[in-house]
């Protein structure tokens, strides 16, 4: 309703007024209606500011999101390890891979007795750290110990033990045993060669008729390295093979090479 009251005649002019108040009001009323509260249009500067903020945020994410990968800030990203020079051209070296997997087997199957630090428990569980059994040239004996267990007297690092270790033939597969052996041969300052699942498999197959735990006396008959060959048999090295081949007549040599080539 108009604020103007009509009791002053048709002109709408009060005495002394130069302009008609109704005209003034009409001009105002032609304008848009008052905005509804809460839905007023935004100040243009605020719109511009938010747009600039979104643009900056997008640019920032594009540059620093790292593709939203969960491993973006993993240590190797910040401090990338030098690529292994070993064979395979960039692949993880086989010893550290086996050590990583073997650590899991060790934690569940071995550390309750031999302890996480590999030092064992004096008088009960012999140490694996710096143990001459663990550091032997090949895994022939320690693979047998893990497969079938061990009982009776044993000397480790100059101390005598006479206890029993259980067998893992049925609870660990070749790969797990190989990895845990590589782990104990390369932890706590130990340094010795990789043990492969194939080596463990060969020993498992070669000792499948054995059900009881090993004794040191039995283990000492097993050569420390060189496959499952019986003690005393010469290891098959390329040099030994060459010597053996030299003893063949040319015809025999030819047929052997043809057989190998097939
Ligand atoms: C129940 C306790 C126990 C568990 C579990 C156990 N060991 Fe043993 N381990 C022994 C004992 C005890 C001996 C010594 C046996 C003896 O006195 O004849 C031994 C001996 C050894 C030896 C030879 C001696 C030495 O210290 O170097 C090796 C190697 C070995 N264990 C490795 C392992 C590995 C690998 C595992 C896990 C797969 C394992 N053990 C799990 C108790 C255990």
Instruction: Spell out the helices and strands N to C.
Output: HHHHHHEEHHHHH
Looking at the structure, the CATH topology of the domain at 94-226 is: Cytochrome Bc1 Complex, Chain D, domain 2
Helix fraction by DSSP (H/I, runs of at least 4): 40-55%
The CA-CA distance between the termini, in Å, is 110 Å
**Mean pLDDT score:** 84
Gross morphology is: elongated
The CATH architecture assignment of the domain at 94-226 turns out to be: Orthogonal Bundle
What's the alpha carbon Rg, rounded to whole Å?
A: 43 Å
Structural class: mainly alpha
Report on the architecture of this protein.
There is one protein chain. The protein has eleven helices and two strands. It is mostly helical. The protein has a domain at 94-226: Orthogonal Bundle (Cytochrome Bc1 Complex, Chain D, domain 2), CATH 1.10.760. The protein is elongated and about 140 Å long. The N and C termini lie far apart (110 Å). The site of heme C has 29 residues, from α5, α6, β1, β2 and α7.
List the helices and strands and how they pair.
Blueprint: H1 21-30, H2 44-64, H3 75-78, H4 94-109, H5 111-114, H6 140-148, E1 150-156, E2 159-165, H7 174-185, H8 197-206, H9 216-219, H10 238-246, H11 250-261
The structure holds heme C.
